[in-house]
Specification:
This protein is mainly α and about 220 residues long. Helices cover about 80% and strands about 0% of the residues. Belongs to the binding-protein-dependent transport system permease family. HisMQ subfamily.
Length: about 220
């Protein structure tokens, strides 16, 4: 017997999905607010080649990059509050886990982008009498960021999709709320089809925007 699709039942519980979507955006935004400045700071410190600090940052970056996201979420939700003597809400735990992991990836993205800038640009800025901070802020970093736009989008997309793992600790993001809607409507296929379309539509629209930005600010070879 053919399956009869019924999206109307799911739409009657759209308040759950809308709440989950809002929490997903909030979670991704919070993690990104940690990841971007952290990644830039770590990249700059590693490029400074301070002996012990550079080595420690490299080890820490590798730990966060190689750890599965779900393991970090569990660790920050269950273990870290015990070790630190604090009580974390689910949002805080997932934000830290995903923000720090994405920050580790962003550190390598920033470092690679900065290194990729032609040495002539560094030398020209030095010849003009610019200090290291001014040279980095006005000459090197703007060129590096323009080169990094595609990989920025890739990492942000991975972060956005990883927010669905927050359902493992019952945080009310869209997958968790979809589970509730599916249990109330007995329509899991329709419910998760809508969730899949939500992720696809969001990422597709952002990808079009990123490509337009990339074409506009591309560094000429």
């Amino acid at each position: 017997m053919a399956y009869e699709w019924d999206f109307a039942a799911v739409f009657r519980h759209s308040d759950l999905l809308l709440e989950g979507a809002a929490n997903t955006f909030r979670l991704a935004g919070s993690a990104l607010l940690i990841a971007l400045p952290l990644g830039l700071a770590v990249a700059m410190l590693r490029l400074a080649r301070i002996p012990v600090l550079s080595w420690l940052l490299a080890i820490t970056t590798d730990i966060f990059r190689t750890a599965p996201s779900i393991v970090l979420i569990y660790w920050f939700f269950f273990a870290f509050p015990i070790l630190a003597g604090v009580d974390f809400a689910g949002h805080t735990a997932v934000t830290l886990a995903l923000g720090l992991q994405t920050g580790a990836y962003m550190a390598e993205v920033f470092r690679g982008g900065i290194i990729s800038v032609d040495r002539g640009q560094w030398q020209a800025a030095t010849a003009l009498g610019m200090g290291s901070a001014t040279r980095m802020r006005t000459i090197i970093l703007p060129q590096a960021v323009r080169r990094m736009i595609p990989i920025f989008f890739t990492r942000i997309t991975e972060l956005y999709k990883a927010t669905s793992l927050a359902a493992a600790i019952s945080y009310a993001e869209i997958v968790q709320m979809a589970n509730r809607a599916a249990s109330e409507t007995f329509r899991p296929m329709e419910t998760f089809t809508i969730v899949a379309l939500f992720f696809f539509t969001t990422i597709f629209c952002v990808s079009r925007l990123v490509r337009a930005i990339e074409r506009r600010v591309a560094v000429p070879e």
